Please model this.
Amino acid sequence: MEIKVLGSCCGNCDKVMALVQEVVLEKGLSATVEKITDVKDIVGYGVMRTPGLVVDGKVVVAGRVPTKTEIAAWLGA
Amino acid sequence: MEISRRSFHATVPLSARLIAAGLLWVAAYEVLPSFAEFVAYGALGLDPASALGSSVAFFLYDVPKILLLLALVVFLIGIVRSFFSPERTRKMLGGKREGVGNVLAASLGIVTPFCSCSAVPLFLGFVESGIPLGVTFSFLVASPMINEVAVVMLFGLFGLRVAVLYIATGLLIAIFAGWVIGRLRLEKWVEEWVYEVKVGNTRLDEKLTFEGRVAYAWDAVKEIVARVWLFVVAGIAVGAVIHGYVPQDFMASFMGRDAWWSVPAAVVLGIPMYSSAAGIIPVVQALMEKGASLGTVLAFMMAVIGLSLPEMIILRKVLKIQLIAAFVTVVGMGIVITGYLFNLIV
Model:
């Protein structure tokens, strides 16, 4: 599974990153987690507000910090 | 503890919890004046006629009042904003002519969720979908200038009239500044790479439930209150000291309406000041009590809140320095005119 956290400047992106990593670790998922900070790549996903989360190429959330339960559901765990 | 909280959440429906929270809010707001007087004059035994007594009572009343108002307004705006997104706003602005587009963009700037972190992706998205530069600027001016924190502080400390004046003139400045920038044809001062960016086509159709909207709004309350409470406390503390100790009419000579240079000076001074918006308004309110005029004060606040250095640094990624200078000049002139106008008519 390929997980991408979109965001560059506010602390919210780090929050999403930490939550994703927690879920991956707790559920023992095999996934690569990457942070995308280049704004060209961010808008490339059609996202105009950060933080955003992309799972296997699909944007699942943008503009807010999701809950851990939501993230777990998106990751299929 | 965690389990009992969970089951509480599960058994009490959301509507009942919202009503309970609303009643609690009203009750807290109602008892606040007598609470502040009781603590200042009763528990602390201060003399209501003394400078210290009136300063402390002022502080004890204003801090909780502003925080309560802030929580309420941010929550309500959060519910409204959950219906909007930059992606949706972009679609609404697409194909609009200048003029109509400027008015719509400035208005949408108020309700579209936006933080300066997202200014660059938003700018790219707008430009790529063919929204004119001037219309994009109307959005970028209105969005930070007319924000919930500023409006709450103005309403709480200056009253409804000033808050409404601020919103109305802020909208006008955003509309006209955007229109002027559009007329000036400054597209050449946008960084070239901006026009090469391809915005993806991912459609994110998040259908939020009512519970989801409440959670979104509540998150906004927590985030904003956590970010600004210290500024509110510090600002009101300084304001309270001025309120109690600075002599009447002290400010009249340099921020009064007779000092013609005070409006431009206030704007120039206000531009580099930023996150202290929540802290600056109570100070400015106290200064007005001591003879500063409304137009000067309004111009100062608009410059502090609407033209911020950090936002310009972020926008520098997509705009050449000449365009940033033009942007600051046009908006700054709009603010100066507004300041003079209010000094003349109020």
About this structure: Chain A touches chain B at residues 7-10, 39-40, 42-50, 58-65 (CB under 8 Å).
